[in-house]
Specification:
This protein is of the alpha+beta class. It folds into two domains: about 1-70, 2-Layer Sandwich (Double Stranded RNA Binding Domain), CATH 3.30.160; about 75-105, no CATH class. It contains four helices and three strands; from the N terminus they run H-E-E-E-H-H-H.
Length: about 110
């Protein structure tokens, strides 16, 4: 179970409102733990997640796959207003690149 916990994606950030660090597991967006340091908040999150994963396993629930183990096609489909599309096409033409290359350079 410990190896599985370490495969998930975590973020820690300071919360001025809570006057502590908050750790989150991105695959479980409703979870959050607090701690006086990023390390302690993360340790709390991993401890909480271990219990949740154990409970989910016992209940035969589907456990989210870690982002790092998921397969991605490498393509996105994005809808934008026609005026934005036109602006991107013009900017790409001015730079001598494809719209795809232009958007990739912006992200």
């Amino acid at each position: 179970m410990k190896n599985q916990i370490n495969r998930y994606t975590y973020r820690e950030e300071w919360s001025e409102e809570d006057h502590s660090y908050i750790a989150r597991c991105l695959e479980f967006p409703s979870l959050g733990t607090h701690g006086p340091t990023p390390e302690e908040a993360l340790a709390e999150m991993k401890s909480l997640l271990a219990g949740i994963l154990e409970e989910m396993t016992e209940n035969n629930e589907v456990i989210p796959e870690p982002f790092g183990l998921r397969r991605y096609k490498g393509s996105l489909s994005l809808r934008v207003p026609s005026d934005v599309h036109r602006s991107l096409a013009i900017e790409a033409a001015e730079q001598g690149v494809s719209i795809n290359q232009l958007i990739l350079s912006k992200i």
